[in-house]
Amino acid sequence: xxxSKTRVRGIGNDSLRRENLATVLRxxxxxxxxxxxxxxxxxxxxLNRSTIAALxxxxxxxxxxxxxxxxxxxxxxxxxPIVAVTQKAVAVAVNPEIDSIRLALVxxxxxxxxxxxxxxxxxxSASQAVELTATAVRVLLQKLGPEQWMVGVGVAVPGxxxxxxxxxxxxxHFGWVDEPFTALLSSSLDLPVSAANDATLGVLAEGTFGAxxxxxxxxxxxxxxxxxxxGIITGGLPLNGAxxxxxxxxxxxVNSNGVTCHCGAAGCLETEVRRAPLLELLGLTxxxxxxxxxxxxxxxxxxxxxxxxxxxxxxxxxxxxxLGIAVRTAINxxxxxxxxxxxxLADLYAADPGKLNNSLAARPLAASGESVQVVPAExxxxxxxxxxxELAFSELLADPVKFQDAS
Amino acid sequence: xxxSKTRVRGIGNDSLRRENLATVLRxxxxxxxxxxxxxxxxxxxxLNRSTIAALxxxxxxxxxxxxxxxxxxxxxxxxxPIVAVTQKAVAVAVNPEIDSIRLALVxxxxxxxxxxxxxxxxxxSASQAVELTATAVRVLLQKLGPEQWMVGVGVAVPGxxxxxxxxxxxxxHFGWVDEPFTALLSSSLDLPVSAANDATLGVLAEGTFGAxxxxxxxxxxxxxxxxxxxGIITGGLPLNGAxxxxxxxxxxxVNSNGVTCHCGAAGCLETEVRRAPLLELLGLTxxxxxxxxxxxxxxxxxxxxxxxxxxxxxxxxxxxxxLGIAVRTAINxxxxxxxxxxxxLADLYAADPGKLNNSLAARPLAASGESVQVVPAExxxxxxxxxxxELAFSELLADPVKFQDAS
DNA sequence: TGTATTTGTTGCCCTTGGAGACAAATATCT
DNA sequence: AGATATTTGTCTCCAAGGGCAACAAATACA
Lengths: 407, 407
Hints:
- The structure is a homodimer.
- Chain A has helices at residues 13-30, 38-45, 49-61, 126-141, 181-189, 198-209, 269-272, 275-282, 292-301, 307-334, 344-351, 353-359, 383-398, and strands spanning 36-37, 65-68, 82-85, 89-96, 100-107, 111-119, 149-157, 160-161, 168-171, 176-179, 193-197, 218-224, 227-234, 237-238, 338-343, 373-376.
- By secondary structure, the first copy, chain A, is of the alpha/beta class.
- Chain A folds into three domains: 13-85, Orthogonal Bundle (Arc Repressor Mutant, subunit A), CATH 1.10.10.10; 89-201 and 383-398, ATPase, nucleotide binding domain (Nucleotidyltransferase, domain 5, 2-Layer Sandwich); 212-376, ATPase, nucleotide binding domain (Nucleotidyltransferase, domain 5, 2-Layer Sandwich), CATH 3.30.420.40.
- The longest helix of chain A has 28 residues, at 307-334.
- The first copy, chain A, is globular and about 70 Å long.
- Chain A starts with 12 loop residues before the first helix and ends in a 9-residue tail after the last helix.
- Chains A and B meet through helix 1, strand 13 and helix 10 of A and helix 1, strand 13 and helix 10 of B.
- Chain B binds a DNA duplex through helix 1, helix 2 and helix 3.
């Protein structure tokens, strides 16, 4: 009912403190392991020196941040202590995929402390997946130090997830429909569990710690084995939509004469732009998909131009053309400053950047200097771990007081 | 640089008061001329009775709101006074269009106090338009009472407007490119002037006072004489994008085999779905476009099925099919709760609602109960006046203290 | 070595919202 | 009609939080 972000709740004296604590913690969190000096926090928040001191002290007493002497002393004046997140509060990130379930222990600041992987199959039922995940989480929990405490679990689901309660509405890979994965996992582990779409969490990670750091409007497009997912940040906030299903850019129409998609429409982006035909043309298996990028580049650099390489180039150009159409629609709709490409879309783009860039010219204002930039994702394979952890941390970041009383 | 909406600034004691004042004023503003009781404000904000009393008193002392006895006494208990906006603070709304420039004097709460219209031609230069507008605004200013004061001017521009400074980057109707319309008008009138895209302001109006009242995620699609514009609200906030060009849904691809659009691409929504062919088939002129809706309905209700009416039906179905594709893409991207159709798109939809609704079925989750609703716009011809005024009021609504000192 | 600069630290003040007691105004029940 | 319950305005006092100014500390630079 009150989902509107235009503030309706007033601010009391207590929520004032809470918001300021959250602001400081978020700033420190976003600065990652490098941390940021107390004077920087003063400048960025606009708060008084004494206030920042008090806020940092409270966060420190709760064990969330720690102060240290600055390593390099550059400017004149009394050096300001560096405030950085501790690794006492940790989250577990989970990403169930076709072949395996990946997990990680992640600390504040986006640092991956430990990884774990369990094999899975495509015909896994939701309750089986919960079982597998729960035991894997318990393995990770054993690695926790005595001082560390678990904030919760974040799950990056390849499918549609209802934000409200984490219900997995649709996960095509596993054939799940309306599976309460989140609730089951939560009751099995007795920990708070939250879930969201994988690409939505991808853009969260990339926008906080990756290529989109500090950028308020960006679109993330990820090409995976079985489709294309999208995540959007606008005005500095993740775009979830009414229920959390926003960002399904894989179902943008790119070809009226295209193949019918599993969604029922024809010529969707993800029916026209696929990894499988590229791998096939290159003679690579699914497991060798890491080599896709270099193989494509090799095919494009080949001067002689064999029959096979020209076939590859044609397919790449074809796919890039369709990708361009979808990206153009996204730009016209969202006016982002940055398009981040992940998965095989990054490889596709790298093979012939000019093709996509030119394709983006066919839109209003394209000629002006205010055009968007297309870049590959910066975060590597940890992106979903970081994004899922970000989700798990979100409550803590919004209200550091709610957790762990001061000692 | 700091365009991100994730709070970076801390909250001091002064901004605390400012935010609470703004929250209360916004709530009263959104409740329109009906106003809302003080007890309602207490409940909705979560603030204390005494605090609300103080805040309302301050707003009243600034002349922005006034209290009055409740008209109907429904429930038990001491009756709570009704707080409603006054019409002392007013804004001027401006909408330059092909044939005329429309203006209005608008008060808080979205009430249109006076209207004005001056003839215009399509070949109007920007400076000529500024001249015309400025004199028209001066006419409206004379209607101001002695107690009223002008907040500023808001302009709804049929084209791309840079949010930052109101520069009109592109207005195809007039052939304007990078015209500083806003700055010129501001210096000519010596008043604050802000500008934005017309459909963006349309969704603001419709989302605040119209069909989307209280809904945090909605898309507004408007069909005009010369194209289709779109405006988006997500998470309760208008979606502007990096520079203000978001919402250009008229350039979504709907037909790979379509006509080339002025944007350079082929088969855009606005090349396939147009008002002109409908009017032509119905034998209506541009001036008679108000009758389009009833004429279409008549053609659809005709039982016998003349040659002409079946042609009309075919064209309507064709256009609705393409509209459905664009709407589907928007839904997949934004997951709105509501699609609001304005202009001739509302007429088109009304002629055969089932066609569009069925077309939306071809998307993930369409079968579930969580599907979107499609509705016609509620606000009539005043929509852009209200939206533009909303823009002009936005600074006041965000910080009621900055204006007019307490007497 | 002295000076300018920046920033942490401390004590005090001001503003703001909250809580509670009391009064006022209404509906409802007897 | 009168008593009672309920809701809400009003008033006074209080506590908490941030700002400010003075001082001290720590650095760069001349």
